[in-house]
Amino acid sequence: MDDAGSESTAVPLDLLLQITDGFSEERKLGSGSFGEVYLGVHPDGQKIAVKKIYDMPGVDEEQFQNEFKNLARLQHRNIVRLVGYCHHIQEVPAMYEGKLVLAEKIHRALCLEYMSNGSLEKYISDECDKYDWHTGYGIIKGICQGLKYLHTKLKPPIYHLDLKPANILLDENMVPRIADFGISRLFGDERTRATKSTLGTQGYLPPEYIRNYLISSKFDIFSLGVVIIKIMAGRAGYYRSAEMSSHEFTNFVQENWTNRLHETSSLMKAYSKQVKICIEIGLSCVQEDRHKRPTVKNIVDRLNETETECTYAYKKFDVQENSGGLTPDYFMNNGRPVSEVPLNNDASPSKQARTAWQYPTDMTAQQELGERQAASLPDGIYEPPRYLALYFSGRTCFSFSFGTVSLILF
Predict the structure, then answer these.
(1) Where would I find the Protein kinase domain in this sequence (predicted)?
(2) Are residues 87 and 158 located together in one domain of the fold?
(3) Tens-place pLDDT, residues 29-80
(4) What's the confidence (pLDDT) of residue 187?
(5) Phi, psi angle pair for 349, to nearest 5°
(6) Rounded average pLDDT over 238-252
(7) Same domain (yes/no): 129, 90
(8) pTM above the 0.85 mark?
(9) Shortest CA distance to 67 belongs to which of 165, 190, 158, 170?
(10) Same domain for 276 and 379?
């Protein structure tokens, strides 16, 4: 099979039969739209998911071509990657008007990267107790990023039209990948269409489609909202949302997660707010009026804002709790300013420092800058305490020189 950076290629049917044990029941992973998925184990040990397209004359060809074209052009860490495909025409004996004739049988399959943790569906319980908050948030953010790629980065955009936990796969690190584009539609300039073909899954369909068969990007947003709420509240909690006001339901979910968060008081407020915003996003996505639903870009931007607040709270906590009360301002106020201190090549091959604060390597400096014996080390790069590394992330370098430790800002 191809590696991650290569284009998808044709795979012979004989090889697919070999690696799936003839599409045996033991290798069956599940069923998707218009096809069944099997585990394929290549002779070199690589595992792939093989989606065998159903033999449905008059439907299969268009379906296969649609899904293949959709998948072949997608390159994103939150989208399942297509690694190969099979399109094999076989002549088989068949009876026609009382005579034995040769008929064409078309075998079609898509070969996809294998996701070892299966689908999100098996992790959504009644009480959403199969993952911690950081994992749950990462899944929400990843799904949103994948959907943003489909809606905004492709020309024309792709609407998934069947977004649900069963179509969100998780890799070994619980990173979500959107899968199963069996009913995806490509949309050009016309962003809203009416169709009477059967799409999606009951419970994830927006009201405008149920009533008038309208399709737009807000179809996926509605489905996304249902997924987010189920991640946040669990399967049972999701149905409670219909019995409560938005405010009551938000407080209910926030309280449940706050009770489960094992963070210090310094971080609890930030993470509790992140929980609240995520459930607010989910509820805003399932509004009946599609025009009031946010775009996926709006959603990702709002999630990014919560991460900024959590990062700030984490840095503040790390300084207060792990530095013995020594804040970055302390270092600024007690160091000796040095102008235009050049860095050695190991520290930064192409930059010069604008400002630096130097500290003598006595016992006080050792307490301030960490446990390492600065004076006994040769000139080079200093590994700063964790709280300073976080606070000055991406903007600083510590170095040793002539018995001093320098904190250098760019």
Answers:
(1) 23-307
(2) no
(3) 988 667 899 999 988 899 999 999 887 665 556 766 676 777 788 899 999 9
(4) 60
(5) -70, -20
(6) 92
(7) no
(8) no
(9) 158
(10) no
Polymer length of the chain: 410
Model confidence band, residue 323 (pLDDT cutoffs 50, 70, 90): very low
Per-residue confidence (pLDDT) for residue 57, from 0 to 100: 62
Q: Do 349 and 299 share a structural domain?
A: no
Residue whose entry in the numeric block shows the structure tokens 């009480």: 127
Q: Is 162 a catalytic residue?
A: yes
Cβ contact 119:170 at 8 Å = yes
Structural domain contains residue 150: yes
Distance CA 340, CA 181 (A): 56
Q: What's the maximum distance between 2 C-alpha atoms anywhere in the chain?
A: 101
Give the residue from 258, 277, 280, 255 showing the smallest Cα distance to 267: 258
Q: Is residue 1 part of a domain?
A: no
301 pLDDT tier (thresholds 50, 70, 90): very high
* Rounded alpha-carbon distances, angstroms, from residue 212 to 74, 233, 299, 343: 30, 30, 26, 66
The pLDDT, as a whole number, for residue 347 is: 38
Of 321, 344, 370, which closes a domain?
Answer: 321
Annotated catalytic residue within 2, 55, 129, 162: 162
Domain encompassing residue 182? 120-321
Q: Pick from 321, 349, 366: which residue ends a domain? A: 321
In this structure, which amino acid lies at residue 54?
Answer: Y
DSSP class per residue in 325-367 = T--HHHHHHHSEEEES-BPPTTT-SS-B-SEEEEEE-SHHHHH
Where is average pLDDT lowest: 10-14, 236-240, 336-340? 336-340
Residue 347 lies in a domain: yes
Could you tell me if residue 4 is inside a domain? no
Residue 92's CB: how many other CB atoms inside 10 A? 9
Please give the single-letter amino acid code of residue 201: T
The binding site comprises 52
Domains contained in the chain, number: 3
Q: Which of 266-270, 271-275, 394-398 has the highest mean pLDDT?
A: 271-275
Do 103 and 142 lie in one domain? The reply is no
CATH number at 25 reads 3.30.200.20
Burial class of residue 182, CB neighbours in 10 A (0-12, 13-18, 19+): buried
pLDDT above 50 for 385: no
Sheet of 336-339: strand order equals 336-339, 355-360, 404-409, 396-401, 380-382
What percent of the chain is predicted at pLDDT more than 70?
65
Looking at the structure, tell me whether residues 254 and 279 fall in a common domain. yes
* Pick from 372, 400, 402: nearest CA to 386: 372
Q: Which residue has the higher pLDDT, 92 or 394?
A: 92
CA gap 234, 126 in Å, rounded? 5
